[in-house]
Structure prediction request, 219 residues.
Amino acid sequence: MRKLIKRLLDPFLKLGAKKAFSKPRPFKYDGIEVMVMPEVFPPHYTLSTKILLQYLKPLKLENKTVLELGCGSGIISLFAASKKAIVTASDINNIALTALKQATVKNNLDVEIIKSDLFQNLTSQGFDYVIINPPYYPKNPTNIKENAWFCGEDFEYFRNLFIQLQNRSDDCILMILSQDCNISKITDIASKQGFKLEIELERTMFTERNYIYKVSSKN
Ligand SMILES: C[S@@+](CC[C@H](N)C(=O)[O-])C[C@H]1O[C@@H](n2cnc3c(N)ncnc32)[C@H](O)[C@@H]1O
Prediction:
């Protein structure tokens, strides 16, 4: 039934979203404002970003090092910075990074911004927190915006992520996934590289269930 409703609503939602995201749109959380460019992941109507923000809210982040891997608009990075964390935001999307730079000035918050394919250009070998809201639909992205949604036909994003994590010493890696994606496939890829995914938080909003997972070594 849920799938049928979704299928019926989908064309209208897509049309609405296309219209809504054809121009820069502000997004606000807790007094922080970012301008979300049309080429950047929109946190407005998706749930994942908001669930991560709510999860971070009660945490004591003062002087903790935080990496938002694939920061998009950077609202999570700015929020962590407002909680006095030492924040690094990375992405492969230049448009997102330029807009985030402007948002740091506008909000008077300090975030180190680095263009990086996963961990490639990051010098720190370990953060206290790594926050990941990954692309998870199995399709090859054809433009910079699609990198926010598609992880590659063969889940290349996750294959590379878990390979790179093997050489790192991050304390707490948090990754959000939706029931809409192939969680068992992602868990399997993680497991083959020596990682397990444990549910840290489960949240159902509207009809969609999301999970924040803690990623850790199996040993
Ligand atoms: C679902 S969006 C999440 C954006 C933001 N973290 C949020 O929660 O609103 C995924 C982000 O990951 C970025 N991304 C995709 N592949 C990447 C890669 N290989 N390295 C770094 N960032 C990547 C995308 O450009 C996009 O900004």
User: Anything to note?
Assistant: The longest helix spans residues 2-20. The chain has one domain: 23-217.
